[in-house]
Amino acid sequence: MTWDDYEAERRPGPADGVRRLWRRVVNPAKPTAGPRQPHGREPKRAGWTRVLGVGLAAFAIWTALDAPTLQHNAQVSPVGLRRTVSLDVLGPLAAFSRDLGLSHVVSYADHVIGRNGNRPGNGLLTSPFITMPAPKRGTKSTVTTTTTTLPMVTLNRFPSVKDPLRVLVVGDSLGIDLGDVLVNDLVSTGVVQATLDGEVSTGLTRPDYFNWPDELSVDLPKYTPQLIVIMIGANDPQDFPGPPDIPFGTSTWDTTYASRVAEFMAEAKSRGAQVIWVGMPPMQNPGLSAAMSRIDGIVQTQAGREGVDFLSSWTVLGTPTGQFTPYLVVGGEEVNVREPDGTHISPGGAQVLSAVAEAHIRSDLHIDVP
Predict the structure, then answer these.
(1) 216 and 324: one domain?
(2) 327-330 and 333-336: which strand pairing?
(3) Counted domains in the chain
(4) pTM
């Protein structure tokens, strides 16, 4: 039956709405009254709440993916309330992003579209800090430290299941990148008892934010480590807060920082533990990379004076000439060694650096770790 047949037979009475409904169901080809949009579709308008919700969701996803980069930008920002608040907010988000591997989504996407950052040969200049000979064993500290009543420990060069080597790893966010892998590798040997104490966004320039000497004074009697691995410095290229402030990059800053490094090394060695200080790697940002080179030079000099082993990561995670690179060829395969923010160490890079640290423990410290 068509609409015309219905119109011919219908009796007065049906409502206009019923007739319009019948027209659409029985004879949809017959046009209805009023203007129509192309293809017979009515325009749809999204409500403002939906638009707002989509925008907030997109912002939350972007923040989660890019949180490590945002955290890095906050870390190198000037000292002040804005930096402190930013670090407090972004710290948990960055940790969440790294734990779930969300930051690698950005890295993978960049790799697919060919945005691989500085490849070998396109990065920064060779690090200017001078390589010094390894310090002799048993060199005494030149820094006067307070007397402690804690018992001394002896380095266990032949650890076993019953008498494991006690290792403590401390550091900032890069120290955590290394420590997560290093601790697992050492514990898996079955003859090492390893502990990681790491705090993101920390260093030796801001004891008002986090005091590492105080933290270490708690760790020493708690874990009685025989070997301490330190990786700190990524957040240190900033002014020492005053009054008066000591600007980063000045000779006064270098002297002050050297003193704090020496005191921290002396504290770590105060109970007889052997200490390895892992230096910072080259960074993608040229300014930050130059700052890391400056800090590495200061640390390496103090390590030679304090009898601490300085383990450079400059060419371990960079090119042979000390340039930044997000990828290295390891065992014939390309390995992503740095996070998308160009600062932190990826799990692959941490595995590379951990292997070098373990080799140093075996060959240079002569500790029989399988």
Answers:
(1) yes
(2) antiparallel
(3) 3
(4) 0.67
